[in-house]
Structure formats: structure tokens, C-alpha cells
Amino acid sequence: MTETSGVTNRGRRGAAGLLVLTLLAGLLFAMTPAQAQPIIGGEDEPFPVGSPFTELQIGPLTGELGVLDVDGYTGPSTFDPVTEGYPAATDVPTTWPTRNDGYAGVIPANDAEGNEVLTYCIDVFTSTQTGIPYERGEWNESNVRNLGYVAYILQNYYPTVPDVPAGVADNVRAGAVQSAIWFFSDSFVLDPDNNRQLFDLTSEIVADAIANGPLAEPAQPDLSVSPQTAQAPASGELVGPFTVTADGPSTLRLEGVEVFADAAGTQPLAEGATVQPGAQLWTRSASTAASQGFSLQREVPVRESTVYLYDGSIPGRNSAQSLILAENSTIAAVASVRITRVASGGIEVTKTISGDAAGLQSAVEVLVTCTPRGGGPVVERTLTVPAGTAAGSQAETFTGLTAGSSCVVTEPEDGDNGLVTVTATSIEPETVSVVANQTASVAVTNEYARATGGVRVTKTITGEAAGLQGPIEVLLTCTPPDGGAEIQRTLTIPAQSPAGSQSEDFTGLPSESECVATELENGDNDQVSVTATSIEPGTVTVLEGAGTPVTVTNEYARATGGLQVTKTITGDGAGLQGPIEVLVSCTPEGGGTALERTLTIPAESPAGTVSDTFSGLPVGATCAITEPEDGDNGRVTVTATSIAPATVTIAEGATPAVAVTNDYDATVGGITVTKTISGGGAGLQGPVEILVACTDPEDGSTIEQAVTIAAGTGAGIETTTLTAFPAGSTCTITEPQDGDNGLVSLTASSIDPATVTVVENANEPVAVTNEYARAVGGLQVTKIIGGPAAGEQGEVVLDIDCDDADNAFDQQFTIAAGSLAGGYVETLEGIPAGTNCEVTETATGETDTVVLSTPVTITPGPVTIVEELVGEVVATNTYRTQDQGGDDEEQGGGGGSDYGGYYDDFLASTGGPWGPAWGIGVALLVAGGAALIVHRRRSM
């Protein structure tokens, strides 16, 4: 807020104040003029009522709102209420200055809508009175200390908490709270002798606040207008905008002004209009009153501890005590704008545009900046000339400028835009003093010329054939932005220019022209091909004064053609030849390193044709076709060779054909292998393989072929002829697999001859003979008799059953009744390998008195006869008498586990009695059950 009629704004609220206004039971007290006494409103000091700028006004005191006649002491500035605390009654510093206040308690106030709220004084040294206007402030604006402790008191005591302090009347509660507030704000200590009850209550409140600590400042209601002040010309021009910040709609109040919702002043807002948050407002002076402006009012909840400060609007009154809201209240919050009406004058600005480029310029902006005499808000007015305005003059008058203001005229935007250049500018005069009710003149002139720029064209030549190309021509075509005639410029590069870059600058082109580079001649000729071309960028815009770059790049390769080579293989030796290699060697025109291509045909490729096309050969090159390898290898003879044509000159894009032909005559022989199979085992043998390995007399390489006789082939003769061995080769004949497979034995084998020499066009004979005999093995059957009743059993019979073709080895093995304990052996020899034999017991030897202690065991079961091996089967019988029961140990032996002295007796056997060694063997067999013993027979 700015000063108005000598009254200070919020920034002048330096000192705080104490309400020393006392009105008891509707009576006004007129005391001595000391600040501690009540000051009442009278005819000599009127106050405004219902001002749109007022948020609170002090109301009249009626009833018992506080305590009268309060005496005490005020401490020095060095006293700290928080650290020192409230003194005890016996320690009150009576040496401090004394003070008498006629009233201590709540102070009623009314908001703009007439709602009453309660406040407390936070400034004991400054007066106030009924009708003094207030507005919201912040704690730091009040210049009052310790407001955090005051906030604690207000949140926890009367009237926020109605019955605290307890046990006293409301006016006493209010007096105690006010006295505690003054202690923190102004170091005021009550005189205990004047009012001991009030002293004790105040002391308790102070101690509680210090113990619990300060509270934070409450948040302000969200309602404000910015800026809060402005000067309005007496001539009635609008000023603004004023931006509204709020959390909801507010009500507009006016005093001596008109307010509009738009800058043009076409949307007026009446008294009481609703204004939304974020709105922008404009205003103008509508009266000659000293107090002018508008405000926004909105009922909002306001926290206790919110500070209210004198708004400085009463002429002749510079201060009033500061107040603090006593309890949470709903108040009509006010945000205001104060207007100062000022005398005004004007400035007419005339803008003149000239020059040959007039009409191409951008927008022009002329700025008039006026600073009021003695300071104040700066006013800016702008003349804007649209882009493209033709040559000529136009004027605009700015009125409502504060008289005495100093105005500076500048041109922030002069129309320079790349299309034009400002060649001359003048502002006459540049500074103007505003005179009331007069209009000063200012002339602003700009002269425009056409802006120009350039394009730099760079030609880059690359590639392995760079320097062989023909002439190159690059055309630059530029179209001016105003649609004028095209402008063309040309860059020429001579033929055979070497690899690298060449540039040319084309200047004087109208700026903003669109230029396109094209390549009329790209250097392509019969020696080179253009393999890549680029123009970057394709289109450029000419910039004022700049050389915009364009790069044109060509990559050159030698012009090429091709050659097709067809190889033909013929003759009765076709397919027996070695590898073939056809070489194409091309020498560039004018000399240089020859370029070689090769057609390779693997050895033993069959008769027919093979083709390959060689591309990328330099145009003009002479290509010679030769055959370094013709396939001659000793197995064949090359009887005819042709290359037609033998020399070719390469032409661009052409692919001539060359035919290479070889006729081969075979020089080979063969071997006839006769295989004879015989013997009793013929037909049971495995596969037979006869290998013929021949060494080529030419290169020493080995050629192998094999004859295979399938397994199981019967007795007889098989003949196989192996061919295509080089004549003169030395061949070795071996038999890697001879058919021996366990079922047969090879009894005779011969290769005759084992080495032969191949004769051209002949088949050398070789005889291979194998004689096979049937492989045989044997079987041994052992019968063990044991147990306590051994020797008392009946006849035991074992059946031996073999699956040979004629059952020649089937028989019975009989152990006579009464045979003593021991082992009895039967051996069979000459059984064909692969035969399966099984032993069973058809008579167990049990009688009416002798039985088996355990079942008969025959281990193993069926046996397969293996070549030159003897398979063994063991059958065990353990006997006891009927009256011996099943417990062999109680009968003194049996169970097959204890044979005592039985082995000292002669043991009968079909093969004869056992000796001591046989007894040990039997003992081992009995102890371990039955075992199969297999041993190699050295002779059968």
C-alpha cells in the first residue's frame, strides 16, 4: 500500500500498540491523555465506517469483557520473558517503571459484514479506539516478539477454551490472558498487591506456555490482489491488470472507481459482483475523492493468533496498537487495491516505413516507457506495426500518462527479419516529459533494404576411378520468397579432375530464397560408372549474410563388363580325370596389374558342361583364357583341347562367351577278385571284407576299393571285378575281416596273389579262399550229495538236454542209490558253440526214510556253450532222515553245511573217486552254495 493523504500504509506500522479503550456498562470514560488510559472516539476524531478497504474495525466495549484498573511494571529491553520467566510475587522488580492500564481483556471488533470477533492487544504502549480500521498482517510485520508463545496461550485459554483458567469469571479469564500476552510482548509484570488473583493466574499461564513451547504462525486465508496500488489518470484511462488469487469466489466493493473484466473496458463489473479466482481486472478513476480503489471480500475461516494491523487510512493518525485474533472465527477477509488519481497528458507516436524493401519487414514494435516524477509504478505503452506493412506512416496516441512523467521511446523490434536489412532508423525525440492536458509528438522512422546471402556449393569426387570421369556441371536454381524471377548459378568441374573437393560461393542471393542444386553433367563416360551420387541438403534457404552450404558428391568406379566361361568334358575317360582349372587373366587398357578369375572343376567330374560368369571386369581390358590344369592324371589322357576364343576385349555391359573343351581317353585296368568259402562251418561265419589298395604311379596317391561278403553266406564261390585303377598301379590285397565270429574257426585262408600290377584295359585275377570249421566247447555237470543222511538216499537221476541239431548230446547222469556224500562229475566235450544246454533232476533220491533237507539247487540254469570253454553246472542235494526233523544242528550235522569225516570215504563217480583235493573243492562248493566254474580248454 502507498501513503495516502499523510496516512501510513502497512509498511509504516512500526510500533505495536495496546488498547487502552475502556467502556464499562455502556459508559465512556474520559481519562488523562496518557497512553495507558482509555481513548474514546469523539467528534474531533471521526473514523470511516463501511470502507471497502477495512477488514476489521474496533467495536464498542459493553458489559464485563475484562478487568479494570491494572497496575504493574514494564521491564527493560534486555529482559527476556522466555528465559527469565514470570517472577514470584516476592520477586517482582519494583525498580522497573510503573504502569497503570485502565483495562485488560478481550477487545471486540467487527468485520466488513458486521460479524463480531474477539481480539487481544499485543502492544501495550500504543493506543487504539472504537472505529479504528484494521487489515490482516503477518507476524513479522507487527514487530512484536514471542508471538509463538502468545499463540500457545490463545490456543489453550479463554475464549478458545471457554473455562480456562478454571474457577473464575470470564472477565477475569480475559484479564489474565491479556496480562500474560503483555508479559511476552512487552515484559509487563502485574503488581501482586493490586490484584493478587490476577497475578497468580497470569503467572500460571506464562509458566504453562514456556513449558510447552511456541506454536507456528497460522496460515493466512487465500485471498489477495496484485498489485495493491496504482496511479489512475484523471483523464479516465484504464489501469491494470490486477490479478486475483483466492480459493473461491469473492465479492467486489468499489470506492470512487469503475472496474472492468477486460482491458478494453467493455465488460464493467458492478458493486457486489462476484469475482472468480484467477480473474484479471482493470480499473479507472471515476471521482475526485482522495480515497479511491476497490476490494474483494470473501468469508473465510481465520485461525486464532492471526495478526491485524492498523491500515493507515485515517488522516492524521499514524499508528494504532496491533491486535491478535483471540479465537478461530469466520471473517470477511478483504484484499484491496488503492488508486491514486493523477493529472495526465499524452504522446502521439508516428511510425514511418520506407526503402525498396518496405513491406517485407517483420512486425515493428515502438515502446513508450514512462517513469512518474518522484517515483512510482512504471507505465509502458506499445505501438505495433504488423509484419508486411507497406511504405508509409501511421500514428497512435497514448493518453492517460501521469503528468510530469519522463517517457523514453525505444524500438525493441525494428522489423529486421532476414528478408530485409534496416539501413536507417531515427527516433525524434527519444525522451519526452508529459505535460498535463497536452499531447507531445514523437517521430520514428525505419528505412529497409533487401537482405541478401549466399550459397556455397562444394563438389566432392571420390571412388577408385576418380580422375577418369568426364566434365561435371552443377546448377543452383534459387526462387526468391516474393515470387520474383528464378536466379541460376553454375559450378563446372573439368573432365579428369582428381579425387577431392572444389567449392564456389554464389553471393548476392535474396535472403529466404529457396535454392535447389541439380547435376546437369555427372562425369559418366565409357571409362567410369557413377556408383553413388548425393546432394545434401536437397533444398536450402538463403540466410542473410551467410554462405549456406550444399555438398554434391559423386563416387566413380571403373566401367565394367563380363565374361562367361563354359567348360565341356567328353571322351570315354570322362569322370576319371583330375581337377581342371581355367584361368582368365585381364590386363587393363593402358596397362596395370592384371585381374585374374578362375573356373575350377573338381576331379572325377562327369562328362558334360560347367559354366561360370565373371563380372566386374574393366572395360577395355584384354583377357587371355588358359588352362593351367587340364585333368591329365595317368588314369586318362587328354586327347583334344580347345579354347575359343582365347582372347577377349571387355566392353561395358557386355558378357561374351568363351568355350573350353577337353576330350579324355581312359588309361585304366581292373582286378577280378574270386572269393571261395568252404568247410563244416561255412554259412555260420560273420561278414568278410577284401580290400584292394592301389598306389597311383603318377602321383603316389592311394586308390582303395573293397569287396564285401555278407555274414552267413554259404559255401561256394563269388567273383567281383573292380575297375578304374590307373594302369601301372601296384595293388595290395588284404582281408581286414575274415568272418571269424565265435561260431566258426578259420582253419585255412589264402590270397593269391597278394600283390598285382594293373594292366591297361585288363582285369588281373586274385583268388581269396577261406575254410571254416564249426567252433566247439564243453559242459561239466557236478552232483553234490550231503547232509546227515547222505549215503542212505535212493537213486539220483540228472537229465542233460542240449538243443543241437540232432540232440547228440542229450543223456542221463545217474548216481546210484546209497552213494556216499561227496561230488560226482559228468563231462561232455565237442558241443557246437552256441548250443544251449539245461540240466534237470528227474529223480531226487528221496525214500520213505530219507528226505531232502532243502530243495534241490541247480546253478546256474541253462548254459550257452562258448568256443573253447567248458561250462559248469552244479546240482546240490542235502538229505536227512524222516525222524531227524528240520533242525540239522540238533542231529549233529546236516543242512549241507557240515560234512564231518564223510570226505575220508571213497566217493564213487562216473569218472572215478575224488582224492583229497576233490574233497577240499567239494567243501568250498558246499560252503558257498553252487558255483559255475568256467575254464579254458587247451584241447578238446
From TrEMBL:
In the UniProt record, the signal sequence range is 1-36
Residue spans crossing the bilayer: 914-934
This chain belongs to the protein called Cys-Gln thioester bond-forming surface protein
**Chain segments carrying region Disordered:** 878-897
Q: Which organism is it from?
A: Aeromicrobium senzhongii
Which residue intervals define the domain Thioester in the entry?
A: 119-209
Q: Where is the DUF5979 domain?
A: 347-449, 455-557, 563-665, 671-773, 779-879
Assigned keywords, A-Z:
Membrane, Signal, Transmembrane, Transmembrane helix
